[in-house]
Amino acid sequence: MRLVSVIVLFGALTVACSSHAEAPPPVDADLGSYALDALSRTVAATGPMRCPAVPRGSFTGEGVRWKTPLSVHPAFAERLARFEAVVVEVATQVYGRAPKRMAHLGSYNCRRIRLYPDLLSEHGIANAVDLSAFEFDALPRGADAPDELPKALRRAFRVTVLDHWTPKRDDAVSRLHRRFLVELTDRLVARGDIFRVLLGPAYPGHKDHFHFDCAPYRLVVL
């Protein structure tokens, strides 16, 4: 099992850090342009707050359906569609088919960042998603399956961040679920045109989900 990596990436600079991530850096011009980059994320650390008015719509998925619709900015919906294409690619290689649907814990939510209360969460501008699980239907009759696919995974099953990022059991099924999650996040980290921030169980408060967003900086803590 690979070691958990906790890194913060700022353009060409790579800084190792502890399990408590550093405060998010300023806008990084090396990340390219994005529709919400110019929007201020600074808010009062206490008291009532209002989130900026941004366009958002209901997104149910293009490559893979979301179990419940997401409320996201149009620019983030485009990134989600690219993400779904990667999910289909990795899942097909590992399981012989794409997931039927994906489950999430939230998208739009007007709130501060819990660890940095003077900063607006990307959820507050419909620019983030908390992904918790992938749900697969049974392998279609007669369909080709990877040679290493256990018989149990020819039936319907569910892969969750909570149960399978760090599996409690060491068996063929658990190892394959772990491989799927690791390969998926590795490819997302390697891509510069999907998500900029990728947080997982190594980041406080994220043991049961991946948080993906397009903040104007690069942060990877998985």
Task: Write structural notes for this entry.
- The chain is of the alpha+beta class and about 220 residues long.
- The chain has one domain (about 55-215).
- The chain is built from 3 helices and 13 strands, in the order E-E-E-E-E-H-E-E-E-E-E-H-H-E-E-E.
- The protein has helices at about 75-95, 160-165, 170-190; strands at about 5-10, 15, 55-60, 65, 70, 100-105, 110-115, 115-120, 130-135, 155-160, 195-200, 210-215, 220.
- The strands form 3 sheets. Strands 1, 2, 4, 6, 9, 10, 11, 12 and 13 form a 9-stranded mixed sheet that branches.
- Helix 1 (about 75-95) runs antiparallel to helix 3 (about 170-190).
- The longest helix has 22 residues, at about 75-95.
- The radius of gyration is 18 Å and the shape is elongated.
Gist?
The protein has 222 residues and is an alpha+beta fold.
User: What fraction of the residues are assigned to beta strands by DSSP?
Assistant: 15-25%
Q: Into how many domains do the coordinates divide?
A: 1
Radius of gyration: 18 Å
Shape: elongated
Class per helix and strand makeup: alpha+beta
Task: Please describe the biggest sheet, giving its number of strands, its sense, and whether it closes into a barrel.
Answer: 9 strands, mixed
| Amount of helix | 10-25%
What does the average pLDDT come to?
89
